[in-house]
Write a structure and sequence with these properties.
Layout lengths: L27 H60 L2 H41 L8 E5 L6 H11 L5 E4 L12 E4 L5 H11 L3 E4 L7 E5 L2
Parallel strand pairs: 1-2, 1-5, 3-4
Antiparallel strand pairs: 3-5
């Protein structure tokens, strides 16, 4: 059987050119189009990056300039501050040291003089207070002899001398009485009064005793 004996069909007259998965030749523009798109996208990205970094650099530039100015000002100030100290001569430094020492010595002497004056004033005031006789002070006359009316007699002597607050009493505990007539006083301010009371009553012994019941206590033992 020969080829001419078959009935011609669609496979005996295929269409012209490749079909199916086969493609025909492409033009130069079609082949270069992907590369052009990549180059265009890269250029746009480069422009965006340049714009962002340029703005950041311009924003940082004023701060850097200000820092430089501040640093320059600090250096100038340090130089200006150090210049007078460097320009002082040794004689000026010695003069300043001498003046400081003199001022310190004067202040110390003044403080010492003030302290001495205060101490003297306090001592004078204490001495003045201690040497003042207070005839309005409470005077208690203890009759240690046991003779009736003996205490009242001595109170009368004191009142004649100006002691308006003098009174007589008997001893509460005879074991606490001194061996001889004594005038006791509580504080230093009562000493002058006690001495005057002893003088008015003819008593030689005067002693301080903070535990007595009155500012001045005269104990009669003879």
């Amino acid at each position: 059987m020969s080829q001419a004996s078959y009935t011609p069909d669609e496979f005996d007259n295929p269409p012209a050119g490749p079909v199916g998965v086969h493609r025909g030749p492409r033009s130069v523009g079609a082949r270069l189009a992907p590369y052009l798109v990549v180059l265009l996208v890269a250029a746009v990205c480069g422009l965006v990056v340049w714009a962002v970094t340029g703005n950041a650099f311009r924003s940082a530039s004023p701060a850097a300039s200000q820092t430089t100015s501040v640093a320059s000002g600090a250096v100038s100030t340090s130089e200006a501050a150090s210049s007078p100290a460097a320009s002082q001569s040794p004689s000026s430094a010695s003069s300043l040291a001498a003046q400081s020492s003199s001022a310190a010595a004067s202040e110390s002497a003044s403080s010492t003089a003030s302290a001495t004056a205060s101490a003297s004033a306090s001592a004078s005031a204490s001495a003045s207070a201690a040497s003042t006789v207070n005839k309005s002070s409470e005077i208690l006359v203890i009759n240690g002899v046991g003779r009736n009316g003996y205490g009242a007699q001595n109170v009368s002597k004191l009142k004649k001398a100006g002691y308006s607050n003098a009174s007589a009493d008997n001893p509460k505990n005879r074991s606490t009485l001194p061996d001889e007539s004594t005038v006791w006083y509580q504080n230093e301010t009562d000493k002058a009064t006690a001495e005057d009371v002893a003088k008015q009553l003819g008593i030689d012994n005067v002693a301080q005793s903070p535990s007595v019941s009155a500012p001045v206590v005269a104990v009669l033992m003879k």
